[in-house]
Amino acid sequence: MGALQSIYPNADATAQERHILRISCTAEPGIVAAVTTALAECGGNLVESAQFLDESTDRFFLRIGFLASQGADIAAALAPVQARFGFGIDLEPATRKPRLIIMVSKFDHALLHLLYQIRVGWLSADVVAIVSNHPYAGDIATREGVPFHHWPVTPETKPDVEANLLDLADTLGADLVVLARYMQVLSDDLTQRLSGRAINIHHSFLPSFKGAKPYHQAYARGVKHIGATAHYVTADLDEGPIIEQDVERISHVMKPDDLVAIGRDIESRVLARAVKLHLEGRVLLNGAKTVIL
Asked: In the chain, where do the E strands start and end?
């Protein structure tokens, strides 16, 4: 039987009234009925529900948003259902603001877009640190009132930088690490430690035009669309489960600089949408893929 888990480990689920419940398990009849009945019996009132059955793997995915009185023992109400069907449960207060560490290198467009969307309230999160291997984002961090950590990366310093990142995430209680065009390859050990809580934006519509200068490669090939891909970070470079993608149509009259400008806009939008989906608990892992509910 899976243990009762939290997608944000430092949350206090009893302090809020609105909650998000997520379940993934082997498909069986009666799961939705049993879960919703248990929630109703502890005073839960459903406000949204989405589900998906992957027939190819026989995996069932469920996400429910509901209201419950403060102090309601939701975990206890769900325990018999959990024992019956043998699944793990992600249960979180929907109004709690997750804590983000944003990592960036020289290009700051994705960072600035995330900060703007947080400022206007479209993204509900607190940025607790900005980390960079270059000093350029320091002024941005100062303006935003966010602690800035400049950690240059060389083959010799990389192990220490990654250890510092893990220590920082633990110390600050960070829920998500966002690589907003952080142009360093993370070690296998670090990606495993951050599994499911690190999102990267790839400057291409995967899987094509990998490596340096993707827009120049696209220009040389005369492509008609360029795009960007946001995915979870894994040990397989740029091959983690995809969360969000988008493309823009281009034409033969455009130069590489035009493609770069369009690409930066797509990257910013795609990363922000992926972060929003994750923060709202709408992304469920399904092997090498994701289910968005």
From this structure: 4-5, 18-26, 45-54, 59-67, 88-93, 99-104, 126-132, 148-150, 176-179, 198-202, 225-232, 242-249, 283-286, 289-292
* Residue 96: predicted pLDDT: 86
Contact (CB, 8 A) for 229 and 202: yes
Provide the token pair at 83. 């024992």
From residue 164, how far is each of 151, 172, 190, 199, 258 by CA, in Å?
9, 12, 11, 18, 38
CATH code of residue 25 = 3.30.70.260
For the stretch 134-140, contacts whose Cβ atoms lie closer than 8 Å and that sit 24 or more positions apart, written own/partner, are: 134/105, 134/106, 136/106, 136/108, 137/104, 137/108, 137/111, 140/108, 140/111, 140/112, 140/115
Short-list 177, 288, 203, 191, CA closest to 243: 288
Q: Which of 46-50, 171-175, 217-221, 247-251 has the lowest mean pLDDT?
A: 217-221
Q: Do 232 and 199 contact (CB within 8 A), yes or no?
A: yes
Partnered with residue 245 across adjacent β-strands are 229
Residues annotated as catalytic are 238
- Nearest alpha carbon to residue 222 among 255, 179, 196: 255
Residue 1, pLDDT > 90, answer no
CATH number for the domain that contains residue 169: 3.40.50.170
Rounded Cα gap, residues 60 and 223, in angstroms: 38
228 and 236 Cβ atoms separated by less than 8 Å: no
User: Quick check: 211 pLDDT over 80?
Assistant: no
Domain termination site, one of 93, 119, 135: 93
Is residue 111 classed as helix, strand or coil in its secondary structure? helix
